[in-house]
Amino acid sequence: MSTIQIKPLTPKYYESNRELFNTEITKSHFLARSRAISNDEAEGFITAYMGNPNVIYLVALYEDILIGHIFAIPHVENLLEHTANIGYLVTPRYRRKGICSMLMEKLISEAKQKTGIEILCAEVCADNKLSLSVLKKFGFTETGRLKKGLKKENGEYLDMIYFSRPVSFV
User: Fold this and answer.
1) Is 23 inside a domain boundary?
2) Range of the domain at 65
3) How many CA atoms lie within 13 A of 136 on its CB side?
4) How many domains does the chain have?
5) How would residue 2 be classed by pLDDT, with cut points 50, 70 and 90?
């Protein structure tokens, strides 16, 4: 396999990043959504968050094709702004190849450089075994569970599990 590059998200990859999201949304309950992200929603996200100096948004590229991403978005409420929610996704063809680990390592490294981010937080659907494994591998601990936190379109409920870890372990 050629070299995987981990880089900040740039406008060049905005559309392929939206397509990555939408491909997963149409196959599962990813992002707790059942409908695709529109161009307007994507532009709204970029406008709202990408100007924040503490936002970290990285992409994984293989031969200049976006195959995954990871982000940390700090809360906007001033009493929570030391915490950041993370999210990540690797296209199915490239899963179980260490790419998510590469993204997570780089995200944690970048978060250590940000003065405002002290705690990384994640929420994961209980049936997402790969994501649960990644979080545990990188020292995230379960901080809570919302029973029946996600209701699928077929009426099935799934628990949501909440995790966190300090950016720098003491």
Assistant:
1) yes
2) 4-121
3) 8
4) 1
5) low
